């Protein structure tokens, strides 16, 4: 579309002197000229001065229209994602999965998918609580877009990839690289995916890992098979019902009660929608926040009569008439398993996602694990969903930055492309440095998760055979579990906060349009307000930032604290000691800063008691996060100029780095450009 700039010149008194007479005409360039006769200090002169450029006036159909930004395939364009892909995966896995990731990068931006995203956003779920005859029905109506996106996520293996375990310890990396690409388009169907993944992991502990036979195990196994299925007609999703009116962070005062009722003359038919017998526990209570209300099952917490909190598995539907094995399965009628939906929550973001208040009345359930161990059981889910949370944070933020970059390529300001405006690019570069630091940390924790889940050490030798460039970064043995335990809450907290702040910057980088909202399929891919709204839940659900800080300190000062500190120390020392020998430019420059902060941090953690550290929890957590991401960035610094610049800038956040020869400000400006747009856009910009 043509760009008709509007120019207007004014004549000031100094320029014109005493205006004697002016006559106007339009020259051949459509500029209105004033023939000015003027008298200055008694001297009369005649000059032609431009006054205005005559254009046809703008209207709703004429005048300037901004070319919309065009998103590129994020698998290729997102430099941070590319670095994570390159750093943590060995070549054979890279070549095996890159096709799927690049195809999925195209799929998530296809019109068909964006129509679903827009539909899910425009048509939030609604509750039809009663039928017209006054009977309670609790019909949850979700949009077609939401259902199609859920089915797409399932068939693409967003949960299944981890359990298929085709790439052994790299399966989790594959899963979450794909998940990252999915995040910006998926209308938060990843919330049920997160809980489904967590539930699958918990159930696998009770079936795959613990293979002792019991009738319960068969039920768990059947549910597990559905949770990890890629077939949308078979697959289940899971909810996680923990939060009550009395508390989301502190679950000790749970008011939901469980009573054992095996053999009681319950009137309900005794199978769930899958034909499995219903559990022997009756759950009664009220759950205040249940996301994924359309899930097929849930893991929930309830108190047993002895006052202990236990974890339970409950299917959400049960059969009330008909038999599954009957020829015509449409004659089977199901209803909710003792669940009524009081109301759907009205939320700032994540609007396509049904989040509800649930009343449980004799909901039939099975206990998972031992009585009184509910928090411990459900923490298996929490540790998975917290990693999902981090990948969602990076995914939403990554989409926001992609929109910001795309806009800077097409927008002109004062006659220059925004991508040539140095102050603008400096701000963007700062954001890209942060994003890269947190993206590498996220995929490092994902790599730890992948290694921790391999039953046999044999499968973990994969990296030694095929040579991942980060093989030395991801340890094996007991250290993996310890690092994973302490870094999961740190990662969850820091990525959520950074993504929220980062998306606010992305929004600002588009000016007024960044603040706009739309659920049109044509706009939905480039609406940052939606991403920003949705990101705000990330620092709240699955544990607030302070709860994560509290958890971090409890780990550091708890019964495994010494082991965790030793594992961290060994990890840092093994890597940083090598920096002295290798003397790459970045490692030489950054070595002192990282070592100093590490020494200060360990002295503080070891020297202060838990009570004092809890008060300083956020700082302790932030410093640990900075340290881990600094180490990863420096390790990656040799990849190219940009990686080296990113590492130096990140490390400089905590004090100047010693480097030979400072760069000039114009060299820094050149690096800003490369950090944001990479090398390929530099050539385009010069044209
Ligand atoms: C996506 C869209 C969503 C839409 C809207 C949603 C809005 C938000 C709604 C919400 O309410 S989200 C809030 C969800 N709540 C949480 O995520 C819980 C946050 N709180 C915590 O994580 C607390 O740390 C916790 C509840 C776990 C603390 O509980 P306790 O009762 O103080 O347990 P304690 O004594 O710390 O731990 C009990 C056992 O579990 C210990 O093991 P031992 O018995 O062997 O000593 C702990 O080590 C273990 N444990 C606790 N956390 C663990 C863990 N083990 C492994 N990993 C963990 N993370």
TrEMBL record:
Positions of the Adaptive response protein AidB N-terminal domain: 72-215
Record domain Acyl-CoA dehydrogenase/oxidase C-terminal: where: 372-554
Example of a GO MF term: acyl-CoA dehydrogenase activity
Lineage summary: Eukaryota, Fungi, Dikarya, Ascomycota, Pezizomycotina
Keyword field contains Flavoprotein: yes
Protein name (Swiss-Prot/TrEMBL): Acyl-CoA dehydrogenase
Pfam families linked: Acyl-CoA_dh_1 (PF00441), Acyl-CoA_dh_M (PF02770), AidB_N (PF18158)
Entry's family note: Belongs to the acyl-CoA dehydrogenase family.
Alphabetically ordered keywords of this record: FAD, Flavoprotein, Oxidoreductase
Acyl-CoA oxidase/dehydrogenase middle domain segment(s): 240-362
Cofactor(s), names only, from the UniProt record: FAD
């Amino acid at each position: 579309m043509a760009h008709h700039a509007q120019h207007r010149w004014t004549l000031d008194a100094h320029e014109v002197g005493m205006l004697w007479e002016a006559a106007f005409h339009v020259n051949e360039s459509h500029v209105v000229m004033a023939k000015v006769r003027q008298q200055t200090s008694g001297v009369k002169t005649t000059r032609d001065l431009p006054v205005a450029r005559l254009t046809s006036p703008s209207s709703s159909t004429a005048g300037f229209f901004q070319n919309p930004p065009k998103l590129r395939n994020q698998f290729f364009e997102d430099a941070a994602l590319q670095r994570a892909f390159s750093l943590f995966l060995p070549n054979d896995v890279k070549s095996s999965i890159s096709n799927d990731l690049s195809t999925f990068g195209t799929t998530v931006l296809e019109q068909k998918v964006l129509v679903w995203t827009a539909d899910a956003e425009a048509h939030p779920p609604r509750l039809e609580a009663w039928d017209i005859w006054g009977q309670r029905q609790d019909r949850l109506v979700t949009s077609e877009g939401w259902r199609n996106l859920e089915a797409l996520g399932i068939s693409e293996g967003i949960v299944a990839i981890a359990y298929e375990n085709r790439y052994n310890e790299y399966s989790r990396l594959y899963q979450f690289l794909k998940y990252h690409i999915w995040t910006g388009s998926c209308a938060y169907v990843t919330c049920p995916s997160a809980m489904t993944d967590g539930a699958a992991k918990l159930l696998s502990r009770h079936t795959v890992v613990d293979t002792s036979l019991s009738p319960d195990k068969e039920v768990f196994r059947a549910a597990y098979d559905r949770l990890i299925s890629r077939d949308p007609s078979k697959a289940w999703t899971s909810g996680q019902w923990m939060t009550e009116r009395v508390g989301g962070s502190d679950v000790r005062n749970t008011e939901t009660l469980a009573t054992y009722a095996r053999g009681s003359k319950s009137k309900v038919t005794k199978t769930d929608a899958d034909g499995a017998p219903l559990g022997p526990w009756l759950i009664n209570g009220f759950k205040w926040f249940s996301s994924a209300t359309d899930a097929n099952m849930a893991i929930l917490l309830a108190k047993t009569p002895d006052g202990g909190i236990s974890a339970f598995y409950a299917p959400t539907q049960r059969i009330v008439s008909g038999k599954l094995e009957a020829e015509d399965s449409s004659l089977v009628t199901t209803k909710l398993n003792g669940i009524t939906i009081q109301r759907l929550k009205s939320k700032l973001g994540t609007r396509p996602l049904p989040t509800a208040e649930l009343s449980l009345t004799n909901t039939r359930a099975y206990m998972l694990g031992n009585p009184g161990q509910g928090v411990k059981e459900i923490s298996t889910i929490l540790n998975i969903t917290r990693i999902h949370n981090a990948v969602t944070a990076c995914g939403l933020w990554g989409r926001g930055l992609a929109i910001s970059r795309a806009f800077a390529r097409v927008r002109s300001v004062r006659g220059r492309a925004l991508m040539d405006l140095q102050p603008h690019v400096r701000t963007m570069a700062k954001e890209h440095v942060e994003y890269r630091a947190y993206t590498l940390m996220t995929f490092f924790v994902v790599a730890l998760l992948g290694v921790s889940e391999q039953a046999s050490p044999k499968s973990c030798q994969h990296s030694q055979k095929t040579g991942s460039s980060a093989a030395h970064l991801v340890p094996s043995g007991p250290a993996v579990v310890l690092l994973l335990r302490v870094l999961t809450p740190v990662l969850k907290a820091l990525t959520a906060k950074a993504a929220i702040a980062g998306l606010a910057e992305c929004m600002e980088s588009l000016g007024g349009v960044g603040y706009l909202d739309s659920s049109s399929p044509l706009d939905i891919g480039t609406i940052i307000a939606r991403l920003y709204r949705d990101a705000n839940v990330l620092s709240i659900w699955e544990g607030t930032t302070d709860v994560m800080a509290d958890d971090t300190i409890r780990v550091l000062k708890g019964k495994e604290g010494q082991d965790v500190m030793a594992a961290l120390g060994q990890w840092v020392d093994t890597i940083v000691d090598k920096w002295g020998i290798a003397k790459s430019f970045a490692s030489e420059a950054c070595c002192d800063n990282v070592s100093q902060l590490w020494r200060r941090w360990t002295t503080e953690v070891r020297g202060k008691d838990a009570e004092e550290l809890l008060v300083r929890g956020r700082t302790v957590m932030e410093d640990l996060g900075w340290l881990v991401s600094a180490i990863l960035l420096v390790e990656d610094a040799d990849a190219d100029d940009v990686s080296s610049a990113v590492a130096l800038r990140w490390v400089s956040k905590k004090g100047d780095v010693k480097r030979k020869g400072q760069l000039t400000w114009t060299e820094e400006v050149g690096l800003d450009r490369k950090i944001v747009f990479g090398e390929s856009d530099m050539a385009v910009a010069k044209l």
